[in-house]
């Protein structure tokens, strides 16, 4: 019997929040040409609804859980709809249940107001809220946040891929929801991921003092700083992308680049590849003035003091940037000493 769970090698970053649980992804096509229908015929099926990028979340015993549906959520759908339209067989839950994603668009988002109950076929479920992945993931357990990440990534790709990139013809969902088929050419089209690098730039001076360089984006509120990031360009290696982005955004040359871990970031379809990069020169740091308006070196003591005083806002725990900073810091990141939200 094949194992139902795989083992991941641990990342040096520890547990980043998205996509790190070793879920068993769908390989049902080995056994059936209609994995969605087979899953819906299983009484244990867990159906995850995704509507306009939001997922239903329920509070239970002080914890947040995905509000899974049973097959009855799809009752009344025509057989042809159930089999191949906007449904995907994501895989097998750790409890053995097949997991199906239902990502039917229900309503144009412009008709929705925040907090509105979802229109259409969702009956009143007063104990649930519809939440985006960024809001929900930190409150879900590792397995559920991973299913939610896969769901958002896959559904977003489908919604953006109604036409064949080669010939422009219409496409339809296939392979149990993991591909699309060009109706004119019979060409298979698979989900795309855009690689992006994100890097913690470090420096150790002649006295052995270690510092981390962070940047402030022109788009951010005062006090917010993070690591440096950017998309990998056509024909570019990861190492070259790290060196280029740090040079462009912070004026720094790096002579060593070390991979630390990755995180899917399906907004809409990035894979963040996290690095630590060693700067050759402390004094060269300067912002590009376009994307980055300030850069600043921090010792661990300075980072700790600034965060505790509320003057430095670091990225939230859902992002790999947070974990790259904590990886350098050496322990969980400090928090502000008083709640400064007002
Ligand atoms: Zn085509």
Automatic annotation (TrEMBL):
<dbReference type="InterPro" id="IPR020084">
    <property type="entry name" value="NUDIX_hydrolase_CS"/>
</dbReference>
<dbReference type="Pfam" id="PF00293">
    <property type="entry name" value="NUDIX"/>
</dbReference>
<feature type="domain" description="Nudix hydrolase">
    <location>
        <begin position="191"/>
        <end position="320"/>
    </location>
</feature>
<dbReference type="GO" id="GO:0046872">
    <property type="term" value="F:metal ion binding"/>
</dbReference>
<protein>
    <recommendedName>
        <fullName>NAD(+) diphosphatase</fullName>
        <ecNumber>3.6.1.22</ecNumber>
    </recommendedName>
</protein>
<keyword id="KW-0520">NAD</keyword>
<keyword id="KW-0460">Magnesium</keyword>
<dbReference type="InterPro" id="IPR015797">
    <property type="entry name" value="NUDIX_hydrolase-like_dom_sf"/>
</dbReference>
<dbReference type="InterPro" id="IPR015376">
    <property type="entry name" value="Znr_NADH_PPase"/>
</dbReference>
<comment type="similarity">
    <text>Belongs to the Nudix hydrolase family. NudC subfamily.</text>
</comment>
<dbReference type="Pfam" id="PF09297">
    <property type="entry name" value="Zn_ribbon_NUD"/>
</dbReference>
<dbReference type="GO" id="GO:0005829">
    <property type="term" value="C:cytosol"/>
</dbReference>
<dbReference type="InterPro" id="IPR050241">
    <property type="entry name" value="NAD-cap_RNA_hydrolase_NudC"/>
</dbReference>
<dbReference type="InterPro" id="IPR000086">
    <property type="entry name" value="NUDIX_hydrolase_dom"/>
</dbReference>
<dbReference type="GO" id="GO:0019677">
    <property type="term" value="P:NAD+ catabolic process"/>
</dbReference>
<dbReference type="GO" id="GO:0035529">
    <property type="term" value="F:NADH pyrophosphatase activity"/>
</dbReference>
<dbReference type="GO" id="GO:0006742">
    <property type="term" value="P:NADP+ catabolic process"/>
</dbReference>
<dbReference type="InterPro" id="IPR049734">
    <property type="entry name" value="NudC-like_C"/>
</dbReference>
<keyword id="KW-0479">Metal-binding</keyword>
<keyword id="KW-0378">Hydrolase</keyword>
């Amino acid at each position: 019997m094949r194992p139902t769970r795989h083992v991941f090698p641990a990342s040096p970053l520890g547990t980043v929040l998205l996509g790190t649980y070793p879920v068993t992804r769908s390989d049902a096509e080995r056994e059936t040409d209609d994995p969605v229908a087979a899953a819906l015929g299983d009484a244990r099926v867990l159906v995850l609804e995704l509507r306009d990028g939001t997922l239903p979340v329920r509070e239970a015993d002080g914890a947040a859980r995905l509000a899974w549906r049973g097959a009855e959520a799809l009752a009344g759908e025509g057989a042809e709809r159930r089999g191949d339209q906007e449904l995907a067989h994501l895989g097998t839950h750790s409890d053995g249940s097949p997991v199906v994603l239902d990502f039917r668009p229900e309503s144009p988002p412009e008709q929705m107001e925040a907090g509105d109950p979802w229109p259409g076929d969702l009956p009143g479920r007063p104990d649930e809220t519809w939440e985006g992945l960024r809001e929900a993931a930190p409150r879900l357990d590792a397995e559920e946040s991973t299913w939610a990440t896969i769901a958002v990534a896959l559904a977003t790709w489908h919604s953006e891929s109604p036409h064949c990139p080669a010939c422009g013809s219409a496409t339809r969902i296939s392979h149990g929801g993991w591909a699309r088929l060009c109706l004119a050419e019979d060409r298979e089209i698979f989900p795309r991921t855009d690689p992006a690098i994100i890097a913690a730039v470090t420096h150790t001076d002649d006295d052995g003092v270690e510092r981390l360089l962070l940047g402030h984006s022109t788009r951010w509120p005062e006090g917010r700083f993070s690591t440096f990031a950017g998309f990998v360009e056509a024909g570019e290696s990861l190492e070259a992308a790290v060196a280029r982005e740090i040079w462009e955004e912070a004026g720094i040359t790096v002579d060593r680049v070390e991979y630390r871990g990755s995180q899917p970031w399906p907004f809409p379809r990035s894979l963040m590849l996290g690095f630590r990069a060693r700067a050759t020169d402390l004094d060269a740091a300067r912002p590009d003035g376009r994307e980055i308006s300030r850069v600043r070196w921090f010792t661990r003591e300075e980072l700790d003091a600034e965060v505790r005083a509320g003057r430095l806002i670091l990225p939230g725990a859902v992002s790999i940037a947070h974990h790259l900073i904590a990886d350098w810091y050496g322990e969980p990141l400090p928090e502000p000493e008083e709640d400064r939200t007002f």
